[in-house]
Every structure is written in C-alpha cells, then in structure tokens.
Design brief:
Elements: E1 5-9, E2 21-25, H1 31-38, H2 55-59, E3 64-69, E4 75-85, E5 92-101, H3 147-156, H4 158-173, E6 179-183, H5 187-200, H6 203-208, E7 211-212, E8 225-228, E9 243-247, H7 261-271, H8 277-282, H9 291-300, H10 307-319, H11 326-337, H12 347-360
Parallel strand pairs: 6-8, 6-9, 7-8
Antiparallel strand pairs: 1-2, 1-5, 3-4, 3-7, 4-5
Helix pairs in contact: 4-7, 7-9, 9-10, 9-11, 10-12
Length: 366
C-alpha cells in the first residue's frame, strides 16, 4: 500500500507572499486533494497561550491528531502541532504532517492499524524533512502504549464511561447523531477517550470513526468526536441536539437517556481491566451492539453485572447454547446462579434464566 504524505506549514512565507503552503508532498498528489486537505489541517493555539512560548511551554501545547473523510470517500490522517510565533507575531506557526488513506478497491472496509493508535508515533514530523515525503507503506506506527496509565484514566473517568459508550454507539447507528465533545486540558487525554471508543466498536467501524484531539473552533469541526480545552467547553453547553459534552473537570456529563445495557456492560468490562473480551465477542459473530453475548462473556470472566445485563446474557445463551465452549458456559451458569434469591434479580432475569435452564436440560454436563 502506497500512502501519500503531505507537509504543510504557516511559515516562512512562500514565494507568493502567503504564510501558508505545502512544503513537501509525495509526487502525484492531486490538486483537489490538496485543496481539501488545506481546510482540515490548520491549527490555532489556545486563547490563553503565551505569544512567545519557551521550549517547555511549547511542549505543553495541545496536539491535533485528526481523521477526516474526504469527498471521494478516502481518509486523511493528520497531526498538527504548534511550533512557535512567527517572525512578525501576526499568527501562530504550526506544522501539519498528513497521510492520505485511499479507499480500498471495491466496497470492503480498510484494513490495518486503527488511526488513533498513531498517537505519539515517532513517524510524525514537526518540521518538513530534508528527504522530502516519500510514500508510506502503512499508517504511522503506533506510539507507546502505557497500560497502567490507561487503567488510571479509566478509573478516573469511570462515572462517565457508560454514557460515553452509549453516545459512541449512536454515532455508529445514526449519521445525524450529536457530536461527542471531550473537554480536557491535555490532548493526550482526548486521545485516550478515542482509543476507548474504538475498542468497543468493530475494527472496521473504528477505522472510519472521525475525530480530532484538539480544535479551537468546535462549532466548525465536522468530526464525530472532537477535543477542546476547558475554556472552549462552556460555550457548547445547552445544545444537546448537536453536542454531547463531557467535561470531567466540571464533573458534568450529558443528560442520559434510556439505560443502555450494552454500554453499561462495556464500561464494567473496561473498569475490570478485561478489555480483551471485546475481541472475543466479535468471534461469536453476533450483532456488534448486542448486549447478550458481551454480558455472557463478562459474567463468565467473573465481572459483576446488573440484573438487566444478566438477563440479556441468559437470554442470549439460551438461544446460542453451542456458541460458548464448556468452560465458559459452566462459568456463566455459576455466575447466574450465584445471585441470591430475592436479591437484585429482576423478573426478566428470572425468566431468562428459566429459559436457559430449559435449553440446557439434557444437553449440558451436570
């Protein structure tokens, strides 16, 4: 696979006097792609950013890693970073490095690494390389993954996870679903949110989930998930039909709708540190947002779930008794039977467990 690269900067001015220009690109990139890309890879520093930042301050500026779908159905993966005020102080300098991901031949989905895994990749450049921009064979290699840091992030954002996953689900089911806005002081935290989103949806869906880890103008962003710094978050409040705003620092979250058993189960799986179950459930060939198989795997892995999730697990297992191997089926039965009689077992769960017992009668080992 040959992926074209683009480098774009706001300084120094080009021959025509413009302070914005492409400084390097893979040969053969169409002019139409350049025009469209130019509208997507710009960078504006935060409102309260110092005009002449030192090296340490410069490193603290948010990074804008974005995935955009272009008019022809292809995608543009780009990282834009602030590089310091220009010689005149009239605008902030930035460097954008983009990779074009063409749509595969036919109607099949793209394959390979999820775009968000390129966060922190050493292949992203903060200046135009002397060697030009030869084509890449793949998406920039994944950056370092810190499991402990991700676990801490999940713990801190635990109360918001179920609602967030429910909103991610809506993005996959409804083209008109509200954008998800993540208010974070650190754009790396936004990247972690997006990693969580991509982990719970099918791999193909995660490759097309559009995002930007930082934007100064969220009202103009067309990505499905966008990150903003705290000073830009309050202006989006009260527009639930357009935005689902998650502002952890203010301890605020969008008003929740009807309970989403799949989203709640997904949140509990992440909080238990058993996220590999998302890959396991896809091997069962079930609907990607069906709570039953996901809850069944979670219960078999000894993850406590609420009664609606246990009911979904029992109901699904009753109709798919041969989908789980013996050890998992046995563990599921034990988990369902361990709920004390008269405890928090809803009538729907009791009925589903009854159907499961009938389905297993004379079929499963004692």
């Amino acid at each position: 696979m040959n992926l074209a690269q683009l480098h774009y900067t706001s300084a120094p001015p080009g021959p025509d006097g413009s302070g914005f220009r492409f400084t390097a690109m893979t040969p053969g990139v169409p002019a139409a792609l350049l025009r469209e890309a130019e509208q997507l890879i710009g960078y504006e520093p935060p409102r309260d950013a110092p005009s002449r930042p030192g090296p340490d301050e410069l490193a603290a500026f948010p990074q804008a890693l974005s995935l955009s779908v272009l008019a022809d159905g292809s995608r543009l993966l780009a990282r834009s970073v602030y590089t310091g005020a220009d010689y005149s102080g009239r605008w902030g300098n930035f460097h954008a490095h983009a990779v074009h991901l063409p749509q595969q031949a036919g109607s099949g989905p793209a394959v390979g690494e999820l775009p968000i895994t390129s966060w922190g990749s050493k292949q992203w450049a903060a200046e135009t390389p002397a060697g030009g921009a030869p084509a890449l064979e793949a998406v920039p290699v994944p950056g370092p993954h810190d499991e402990a840091a991700m676990a801490g992030f999940v713990t801190e954002r635990g109360p918001w996870l179920a609602g967030f996953f429910a909103d991610v689900r809506r993005l996959g089911e409804d083209p008109a679903a509200p954008q998800i806005v993540l208010v974070e002081a650190d754009s790396e935290a936004v990247a972690r949110w997006i990693m969580l989103a991509c982990s719970v949806v099918p791999h193909e869906r995660g490759q097309w989930l559009t995002f930007s880890t930082y934007t100064r103008r969220p009202q103009l962003a067309r990505h499905q998930i966008i990150g903003v710094v705290p000073e830009d978050g309050p202006g989006l409040a009260g527009q639930e039909h357009r935005y689902r705003v998650y502002d952890v620092a203010r301890a605020t979250a969008p008003a929740s709708g009807a309970p989403d058993v799949w989203a709640d189960t997904s949140a509990r799986i992440w909080q238990a540190g058993r996220q590999r179950l998302f890959a396991a459930v896809r091997l069962l060939g079930a609907d990607p947002y069906d709570a039953g198989p996901l809850a069944a795997l979670a219960l078999a892995a000894d993850i406590p779930l609420a009664s609606p999730a246990r009911a979904a697990a029992a109901d699904w297992a009753a109709g798919h008794r041969d989908a789980l191997e013996g050890a998992r089926l046995h563990a599921l039965a034990l988990a369902l039977g361990a709920v004390p009689a008269g405890g928090d077992r809803d009538p729907a769960e009791a009925e589903a467990c009854g159907r499961l017992l009938v389905a297993l009668d004379g079929w499963a080992p004692p």
